[in-house]
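Below is how a single chain appears once it has passed through the pipeline. First comes the sequence as given, then the structure the pipeline wrote out for it. We keep one example in the README because the format questions we get most often are answered faster by looking than by reading.
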Amino acid sequence: MAACGEQSSVPDEGGAGAALERAARASGMVPDSARIISTGVYASGEDKVCLVPQDGDRYRIGASIDLGEQQRCTARGTARGRDKLDVRMGEGCEFVASLDGDTIAFPAVLPAACDTMCEGRATLAALAAARLSDSISEATRAIGSDGSPLCAG
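Resulting structure:
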C-alpha cells in the first residue's frame, strides 16, 4: 500500500529493453516484422500454400488440400498485404488470411464460393501451415492436388 502514491517504474522506449530488442533484430535473432518477406512454401501434412511476389505487396497465391479418396481442394489467385493478406481466388472466393511470423492461416469461415474449388467434403477453411522455405523457385514449383503447379507464372 505504501507504493500506491509513487510513480510506476514502467521502462521507457529508450531503455535497456529497447536497446536489447534493437540488437536482437540487428543480429537476426528476432525477425524485424517490417523486413519479413512472405514468399515461399508453407505446409502442414499434405496441405500446401505458396506465395510468389508479383509487384509491390502483391503475390500469386496457391493453396492445396489433399485428404485422399477424392477429398481435395486446389485454389489459385492473388494476394495483397503483409500481416493480413487480402486473398482473391476468383469466382467470389475472397477472404483475409493472416501471416504470423512463419505461419499462414485462412479463416475458419470462408465464402461459399470457395467450396467450388474443392471435391468431396474437403475445405480450404481453417487451413494453417508453417513456412518450409522462403525460396521463390521452390514456391513456383509447388504442385497442387490436381497435379499442376500452384504458383507458376
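Residues 40-141 form one domain.

See the next section for the split statistics.
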